[in-house]
């Protein structure tokens, strides 16, 4: 039994309900954060709030701003009418994330996001890219308004790392010789870096020692790695309603993810030829996705991926050892369990 599994024994909500519990614990802060997001979406250029309203309607778990708020509470940040730094920075984190989603959907030519038509499918690629730029600009306004050079250093570095991760993913696309270490570098850049930054700034606003900053950075990094590994597994193991995007998108785009790498490395000569055709040359027919799913099941590639995700989740839980026992600490432990178990 893993540490993340054992964490469920303390009487906190089951992993299936942990985000609801985390939202309930942080209800007032999340409502304030959502108001900040809506207010900062305002612009005299009509298309910007229109596209913003589409993004808000699409929903989303808002995990990253939740992590900023949770980390601030974990570190004893005392909020008040004039102490709302954690709210603004949670909104900042969400703007960085949403901006990258807008850009990613254009690059990937995605037509669905969170179960609805993607912004680029509704408003076009140009509008999505430019509104993504607007949201990045808003995020940097929020960082500047916070006034902390440390906060700006953390979040701006994460923004650069996200871009590097996306470029590295593009460079490895269709390349089955990609080492697993490079794939892990990709998902660290595109996902884990912002999870880490979202958590770390919670410690910064609470003026906690560097050891606690680093612990929350480690928690966020490992949680983000687990989260993306599970997302990559779900692309080959979920139904479309659960996934919130079209199942098999990664396959059709020739993305190199751990399920594909694991299946390819365990394949025989004929199966390798199949993967080379559909991933490296991009020659696909309607029958190829079902065959790919069968090969992934045959080689237990989903289990390989989820086992690695579970190890990262365990490391995330371990990183919280430095903090005293509390309800919010238990909720963060449960979040690590949820991250892995949402695939089951």
Shape: globular
Strands ordered across the widest β-sheet: 1-2
Tell me, rounded to a whole number, the average pLDDT: 90
Low-confidence runs: 3-13
Main structural class: mainly alpha
The helix content is: over 70%
Total count of helical runs of at least 4 residues:
18
Radius of gyration (CA) equals: 20 Å
Give the total of beta strands: 2
Strand content: under 5%
Give a short summary of the structure.
The chain has 344 residues and is mainly alpha-helical.
Give short descriptive properties of this protein.
two-stranded antiparallel ribbon; single chain; mainly alpha; disordered N terminus; globular; 344 residues
What does this structure look like?
- The protein has 344 residues and is mostly helical.
- It contains 18 helices and two strands.
- Strands 1-2 form a two-stranded antiparallel sheet.
- α8 (125-146) runs antiparallel to α9.
- The longest helix has 26 residues, at 180-205.
- It is globular, with a radius of gyration of 20 Å.
- The protein starts with a helix and ends with a helix.
